[in-house]
Amino acid sequence: MSTVKKFCFVNRKAPYGTIYALESLEVVLISAAFEQDVSLAFMDDGVYQIAKGQSTEEIGMKNFSPTYTALGDYEVTKIYVEKESLEARGLTIDDLMDLKYEDEDDDWAEKDSIRVVSSEELAKIMGEQDVILSF
């Protein structure tokens, strides 16, 4: 018997320079493949993980950011970005990747996965989770 748990993966680190961002993304995809209720939260420098136009040529690392576009295929549809972290870095939602999913309950309409929320709203969302993993 399988029990679905609510997992929230909190991403606080810049996308490159450490393995945290890539490891988080891999664990998210694995959790989603096992049909867990997965959400992601991006805060602090973690907001850069889903920024548009990433280029890693100068640092000699593989750019894994296109993988985020597959999240909807894994039914990862709840991506929360902390508003205060965006503002502190001079970013807006327009600076982030266009992450979407197809809603089967709405005739497969394409919908936005990213929700910009205040730190207060994010704290409430995190309080509703069974498991929180911070990267």
Low-confidence stretches: none
Range of helix content: 10-25%
| Alpha-carbon Rg, integer | 15 Å
The structural domain count equals 1
Biggest sheet strand order reads 6-3-2-1-7
Mean pLDDT score = 92
Which outline best applies? globular
Classify the beta-strand content into a percent band. 15-25%
Class from secondary-structure proportions: alpha/beta
Number of strands: 7
Number of helices: 3
CATH superfamily (homologous) name: DsrEFH-like
Query: What is the fold named in CATH at topology level?
Result: Hypothetical Protein Ychn, Chain: A
Order of helices and strands: EHEEHEEEHE
Give a quick set of tags describing it.
135 residues; alpha/beta; Hypothetical Protein Ychn, Chain: A; five-stranded parallel beta sheet; two-stranded antiparallel sheet; 3 helices; 7 strands; globular
Describe this structure in words.
The chain has 135 residues and is α/β, with parallel strands linked by helices. It has one domain: DsrEFH-like (Hypothetical Protein Ychn, Chain: A, 3-Layer(aba) Sandwich), CATH 3.40.1260. Helices cover 21% and strands 24% of the residues. It contains three helices and seven strands, in the order E-H-E-E-H-E-E-E-H-E. Strands 6-3-2-1-7 form a five-stranded parallel sheet. Strands 4-5 form a two-stranded antiparallel ribbon. Strand 1, helix 1 and strand 2 form a beta-alpha-beta unit. It is globular.
